[in-house]
Amino acid sequence: MEEKPEMTLILGWNHGAPFLLQEFDRYIAQNSKTTVMSKFIIEKMEQACRYLQLKYQNMQFVQADITNRTELETMHIPQSQHVILLSYSDCQDIQEAEAQTLITLLPLREIANQSNNHFSIASEILNNRNREFAEITRADNFIVTQKRVGLMLSQRSKNRYLAPLFQDVFDPAGVEIYLKPIDHSLQLGTAINFYLLIEADKRRNKVASGYRIAAQSNDPSAAYLGFTSTHLKNID
Predict the structure, then answer these.
(1) Closest Cα to residue 101, out of 123, 77, 131, 83?
(2) Is the separation of the CB atoms in 71 and 89 below 8 Å?
(3) Per residue of the chain (236 residues), what is the pLDDT tens digit?
């Protein structure tokens, strides 16, 4: 099935944005559109991206205040499939940058609630202690930058064999982790359990590592379940 072009909105900017755009280009369909909105002047963002080799996305840069609800609404956010919120970590201290992230998340969630079109919201959180505050906004995903890097380095130092695993997982050409509708693996309308899901995916040369119940997606304690013995229960 041919992939459809997608619209992505990136709010905020830091030194990692060009790398994100380059990696993102490997996953999206041709003729996709990515718009970057931040307080920095357009020329500065374009200069930072001058060496990128983007094949599949058309870029647009907009200078505006991402914490301003009125300016956010001019971006027609519900038309996007993905919204990515980056921290202003290059020009502000962690707490100030984090405050702007949380302030921006609130109107984003309001816009999402008022729209009939679903779009995902991924937010960069610098301090894991602020995650509980961010969860109030019910953002779909959080990328806790410092904690993630720290955990990876800790695991790598304890087990040198994890290095090629991390490299493969984070390489677009390697193994990838996806959220897929359950009807991609099993027929709906009958009682099933996670053992059946594991076996069905095994026959498709895939590995089922957990499941997500859509009705509980806003509950951090139940949104994503792994395949421990505690979570092996019927899912209808």
Answers:
(1) 123
(2) no
(3) 567 899 999 999 999 999 999 988 988 889 999 999 999 999 999 999 999 999 999 999 999 999 999 999 999 999 999 999 999 988 888 888 888 888 898 888 888 888 888 888 888 888 777 776 666 655 566 666 677 778 888 888 888 888 888 888 777 777 777 778 888 888 888 888 888 888 999 998 888 888 877 776 666 666 555 544 333 333 33
Q: Hey, what's the torsion of the CAs at 139, 141, 144, 147, to 10 degrees?
A: 130
Q: State the Cα–Cα distance between residues 175 and 172, nearest whole angstrom.
A: 8
Fold of 7-152: Rossmann fold (3.40.50)
Paired with 11 in beta bridges are 37, 85
What DSSP string runs through 214-232? GGGTT-TTTSSEESSGGG-
Phi, psi angles (nearest 5°) of residue 11: -110, 125
Q: Tell me the CA end-to-end span of the chain in Å, nearest whole number.
A: 27
Spans of all domains in the chain: 7-152, 182-231
CA atoms within 13 A on the CB side of 156: 11
Name the strand (E) or helix (H) holding 37.
strand 32-38
Q: Of the candidates 11, 2, 117, which has an alpha carbon nearest to the alpha carbon of residue 71? A: 11
Q: What is the DSSP pairing of strand 82-85 with strand 7-11?
A: parallel
- Looking at the DSSP assignment, which residues form a beta bridge with residue 219? none
Contact 113, 78 (CB under 8 A): no
In 57-144, where does DSSP find H-type helix?
69-73, 94-114, 131-135
